[in-house]
Amino acid sequence: MTRSRLRDLGITIGTLPPGPHNAITDVPGVLVGHATIVRDEPTVARTGVTVIAPHGGQSWEDHVFAAAHSFNGFGEMTGLLWLAESGLLSSPVVLTSTLAVGTAYEAMQRYPFEHGFVHATGLPVVGETYDGYLNDLSTPHVTRAHIHQAIAALADGPVPEGNVGGGTGMICHEFKGGIGTSSRLVACENGTTYVVGALVQANYGARADLCVAGVPVGREIGPDQVPQPGPRPLDMGSIVIVVGTDAPLLPLQCRRLAQRATLGLARAGGVGHNRSGDIFLAFATGNHLPVPMDDPYPLHMLPHGQMNPFFGAVAEAVEESIINALTAAETTTGAHGRMAHALPLDTLQTIMRRWTPESPCTPCY
Amino acid sequence: MTRSRLRDLGITIGTLPPGPHNAITDVPGVLVGHATIVRDEPTVARTGVTVIAPHGGQSWEDHVFAAAHSFNGFGEMTGLLWLAESGLLSSPVVLTSTLAVGTAYEAMQRYPFEHGFVHATGLPVVGETYDGYLNDLSTPHVTRAHIHQAIAALADGPVPEGNVGGGTGMICHEFKGGIGTSSRLVACENGTTYVVGALVQANYGARADLCVAGVPVGREIGPDQVPQPGPRPLDMGSIVIVVGTDAPLLPLQCRRLAQRATLGLARAGGVGHNRSGDIFLAFATGNHLPVPMDDPYPLHMLPHGQMNPFFGAVAEAVEESIINALTAAETTTGAHGRMAHALPLDTLQTIMRRWTPESPCTPCY
Amino acid sequence: MTRSRLRDLGITIGTLPPGPHNAITDVPGVLVGHATIVRDEPTVARTGVTVIAPHGGQSWEDHVFAAAHSFNGFGEMTGLLWLAESGLLSSPVVLTSTLAVGTAYEAMQRYPFEHGFVHATGLPVVGETYDGYLNDLSTPHVTRAHIHQAIAALADGPVPEGNVGGGTGMICHEFKGGIGTSSRLVACENGTTYVVGALVQANYGARADLCVAGVPVGREIGPDQVPQPGPRPLDMGSIVIVVGTDAPLLPLQCRRLAQRATLGLARAGGVGHNRSGDIFLAFATGNHLPVPMDDPYPLHMLPHGQMNPFFGAVAEAVEESIINALTAAETTTGAHGRMAHALPLDTLQTIMRRWTPESPCTPCY
Amino acid sequence: MTRSRLRDLGITIGTLPPGPHNAITDVPGVLVGHATIVRDEPTVARTGVTVIAPHGGQSWEDHVFAAAHSFNGFGEMTGLLWLAESGLLSSPVVLTSTLAVGTAYEAMQRYPFEHGFVHATGLPVVGETYDGYLNDLSTPHVTRAHIHQAIAALADGPVPEGNVGGGTGMICHEFKGGIGTSSRLVACENGTTYVVGALVQANYGARADLCVAGVPVGREIGPDQVPQPGPRPLDMGSIVIVVGTDAPLLPLQCRRLAQRATLGLARAGGVGHNRSGDIFLAFATGNHLPVPMDDPYPLHMLPHGQMNPFFGAVAEAVEESIINALTAAETTTGAHGRMAHALPLDTLQTIMRRWTPESPCTPCY
């Protein structure tokens, strides 16, 4: 089955234009790398690691303003105490499987010192979602080597989506989920155009709640059409959302962006279920904070009054990232023969057409 | 022009059943009272006061668990420091005009002591949105007497909506806005049915962003069809959302509900504009905390694992409250001949029909 | 009885040098103004208003980075939602009596628009502590005119302390309390010397808990020596602490300073009693954020690594501000003949000498 | 050199009585276990693991109300997102070395499922401080087996202090630090006596700042008397504080306790240096929250008005815990021949006597 990105199906989210790759890598200097682990022996592995690195991978010593928001905290993202205290993201961000957090944490503590970043803080940022339906968790799969592999794979340009990297074993709205990304261009009143990008590791939600551009797609695709994953707690899932921009935002402006990720999640049908870890992190590369530094840093700050289009851009990019994860992910068979079926693309197109009247209007949002 | 509630137009939000009045007053013991101030002399007044009182108006000495969430903080809600510290709502909640906060605050400090509630804290909860487009703010309109009048009007049962009380002068998605309310019944796994109610003072948003049940209603109604209010900063508006339930929730569970109000706002098209005060407060009447008290309070707490339907209920009730504010509010002429036009109900119905295919599916969400 | 400042008694707090006035006004551009209301007819008034204005009183349109911290939230400080969202203090700070919050709020909403600050936010910052023991609260004393009077009195240089302004009726550690201030000079690694100033409205605490430079002064002064105020709940009191610096700090660095005010309060014997509103606000004038602004603001940010001496400076300046409030305040008779006695200065000196061995060491901290 | 507890030296902190063991284990059901790793080959190890387990080690399925407070966030404590969201501590708490967080995290994820706690959340709470001065971090020392060993060692009764468990390699106020504990009995107005206990992993601070009961002990002990550790950033240290009580407190009441740990730290001379991770966690065992649960939990909540003595108890127990860590810890030689010297007990006694006049008063606080 050939998979696709949402826009290539003729379906558009929102009104703002995407960047050239419609990906978080449209933010200059932001790199993404995956390590995908798929094997059936000795135990079934459907898991992996995704790394997002701002400032061209130099963020261990060229800090980036950032902030996090927890929409529902049934999950882990390490490093948030210092992030909140300092407003600084001082490492790349790692997304992986719940049971790989410890391994990833230790690897990310040691990596910078092994690679000459002597001023690293040793407080890694590792997020996770739970892939224990498709991925056999009885034995660890992710090793330090996979973290290194994902870092080595860091690149700009197009970003592989779906069941890759940390998203390999994920399930979203009871379809096969995983990694998705999108971006928007924001033309600011001051004449500058900035980029807002999002990347999600999408592993949450009930099928009935899935919406695409306001259309209740999930309700239109019954289990007779596309089987659901077997019995698993509907609320056992999570979504980690990373938002980046090249605008010169301060940490608390990043927090405003992080909280706006809720809008995109809400539009796609997320409700922050009780056992869902819906953790959002936003960073802004418009300032550089190299360490060590003696003198006060010279910075810029976008006036708050110009943030409105960024809020809309985050909402659109996050919604589209989630749907991109679904349209890119492929039907996957995992541990114990369990299956997660892909969202059927032709069905999606049919539903979208049926719910959109012939009118000059674009779809909702 | 006869106005209506959304459901009376045949339009449904979500899937959960509403309570008997489809209002926050469906939560037993929750009372609502309005004082509406409309006059043209000596200066134009289009303003008022709305009071929401849990525990039958006894909350000054029969505290209620509660929590607040700020989606965007360009606004005031007093009393939140103690609310956050204690988890207690120890007074009714007042919603009014921005420039009436001081008057309402002082009135609410003195009222309980004048009425025998000797254990009141003196830390009132007063929220506001800005009605300076229709309401002439050059002179104060709201007096202590209006606060008393709204308290005297506290009642259960149906709640007047639209341009009443604190909502009298409000504008929402560039239509006439104001007060709206709705409720949902939540059948819990433990066999108990609880009520979730919402009440909004809606004064935010751009027309193009308005959605109803996933349909982009705002974009379909151009300024040629319904004029927009005159030049005013699109982001100069706010929404205060009050959520109540009779479930036995602890304060941090109320915070979970308060944050879920974001979902309903997002579905209706809110993005938390920079100069919007989007402040949400949730309370739970399932426990009583009378003061003074010597012994530990006996309480109950709903297990977190049973909160999922409450999250959906909040989203639905908030979205419907916002739309109810719009369908109830009447076209209003205010200061300097400025007008805010009502959302045309027949047009709304036509749009909804056009965007909903003949199918057994209910609309989005 | 001649009152004094602590240092004039030969008692020193900490090791850092104070600024020229040992007051928050040592921070360039920071002004303080009091309006003191003392009268016996028609009802007894022992109350007032204190205003702290950074950026020479222009902060309505020349915003200042700031943050607040609540050590115990039984109190009100308005305007904190926008302060937290934006990181901006966009008005002077008003400290007054609990029951004057409403009046002060409305006065501060209208004042800027009446004085040409057309870009003011209308979200005033008003803090309070409770003076109902000495001050008859049955009728309001503070009027809009008093707010204006305190603003008109804004000045740099030495700051009147003790029972003046908002501190007029306050009681601290069961002695007469009120307003106190202090400052410290911080020589930064980068060669620049910055000022850290504090101003407190001190109205909290049990006598037995009072310490001065580590010495248990309160325990040494029994009620036989100095009578305590009559029966009042020991925990019915509060302290508002305002910290200012001219260093170029971002909002979250201000939050770090605000939280460090806890250290000074702890050293003086505060424990954050249940019904104490211990609310701290810190601002940094090292950046100017004029409004409106189209282009990104050029800013500077002190590296976090250079903040340690600021933390110590806040602790010292806050502790000394509290003790200055006590050594400056005069014995006061108020409503119903109630008395609050001043801390006796000679006794204080005797105790300090007795607890300090002849040694080259300075006292604790 | 024989080491001691502070009280055995005749020095008392505060006025409240300690529990029978003057330890966090005085809180019924609270167990503590250490695994201490001291060896010189193949690389020098001075490190370990300490586990604190409420509810008799059953907290994986018998949850405990809890909350955390970050006084300065340069550190890691995992699991805080769910702790904040739910108010529940759903595992024991692990304290260890910074570079052992990953290992401890993974061990604590797997342990409960390997031991029949099928309803565990998989979100461990692991805190850390940095022992890289004495402990050679070039190779990992802590393994999963050490976590298991510390769990196996869980016991009530007296708690080994000083250089044991997670405190093995720690340095505090430039003396040898580590683990310390203390407790206080709180006689509540309602007639019940509750216990408040604290346990610290103390690894922070400059010598000059150390105070004991208000006396500037640190300044009195120069480097000529007791050598300081070699060059290391003065602010490279941290303190993790765990507070427990058997009172029936809700999560936000635990947060109030957690924040009060600041008082004890301030009294001992902590200032929350920039690179110090001063993270506090408080739990209350007065309620049991077993999982799974269908019906609402029956709970009790101590009225806020009775919390004041708890606040004082936390301050005292935390201060004494820190000093106990110092009086118990032994001079240690670690990696590269580096030394951390113990606080000399006779000198401490001499200083305390010299600074305390012959008077019926107890020392400060």
What is the CATH superfamily of chain A?
A: L-amino peptidase D-ALA esterase/amidase
CATH topology of chain A: L-amino peptidase D-ALA esterase/amidase
- Categorize the overall geometry of chain A: globular
Question: What's the number of helices of chain A?
Answer: 7
Helix and strand sequence of chain A: EEEHEEHEHEEEEHEHEEHEEH
The helix-and-strand class of chain A reads alpha+beta
N- and C-termini, Cα separation of chain A: 30 Å
Give, in spatial order, the strands making up the sheet with the most strands of chain A: 4-3-12-11-10-9
Oligomeric status: homotetramer
Helix content of chain A: 10-25%
List segments of chain A where confidence is low: pLDDT < 50 over at least 5 consecutive residues. 359-365
Number of strands of chain A: 15
Q: Which range does the strand content of chain A fall in?
A: 25-35%
**What's the average pLDDT of chain A?**
95
Kindly list the characteristics that best describe this protein.
L-amino peptidase D-ALA esterase/amidase; homotetramer; 365 residues; alpha+beta
Architecture blueprint of SSEs:
Four copies of one chain form a homotetramer.
Chain A: E1 31-39, E2 45-53, E3 62-73, H1 80-86, E4 88-89, E5 93-97, H2 101-114, E6 125-129, H3 144-152, E7 171-172, E8 175-176, E9 178-187, E10 193-203, H4 217-220, E11 238-245, H5 251-268, E12 277-290, E13 297-301, H6 308-328, E14 332-333, E15 339-340, H7 345-355
Parallel strand pairs in A: 5-6, 11-12
Antiparallel strand pairs in A: 1-2, 2-5, 3-4, 3-12, 7-8, 9-10, 10-11, 14-15
Helix pairs in contact in A: 5-6
